[in-house]
Amino acid sequence: MHSFRAELWEHDGDGSWHFLSLPHADADDIDATAGEARRGFGSVRVEVTIGSTTWRTSVFPDKKRATYVLPVKRAVREAEGLVAGSPVAVRLRVLL
Fold first, then answer.
1. Residue 23's CB: how many other CB atoms inside 10 A?
2. pLDDT for the residue numbered 18
3. Which of 2, 36, 59, 88 is most exposed by smallest CB count within 10 Å?
4. Which pLDDT belongs to residue 34?
């Protein structure tokens, strides 16, 4: 289980895609444990909890940021009152 805080950011400022960048130490740990569990584009399936919302998604490697990024869908942002720039407490579990 990974627990961290990260700032929510908006992709290209278009309002539709929002992400969290994983801390490098957590990304390194996921790299070390994911192995053959990687899927298309190098993604890794995860279960995420933010506030009282839990869902399953994937984290994706981002070469520009040299870490994985976690997409945060609109329903989660609305349920948890999140906007770009919000600090977010995250619990993340890799699904192998």
1. 16
2. 96
3. 36
4. 85
Structure tokens at 10: 């908006």
Domain that holds residue 81: 2-94
Looking at residue 51, which CATH number applies to its domain? 2.40.30.100
Summarised one tens digit per residue, pLDDT across range 11-51 is 886 768 999 999 999 999 999 988 777 787 889 999 999 99
For the chain, the farthest-separated pair of C-alpha atoms sits apart, in whole angstroms, at 36
pLDDT at 73: 95
Q: DSSP secondary-structure letter at 37? A: G
Alpha helices (runs of H) in 15-81, residue ranges in sequence order:
24-34, 74-80
Q: Are 85 and 7 in contact (CB under 8 A)?
A: yes
Torsion sign (Cα): 16, 78, 46, 85: positive
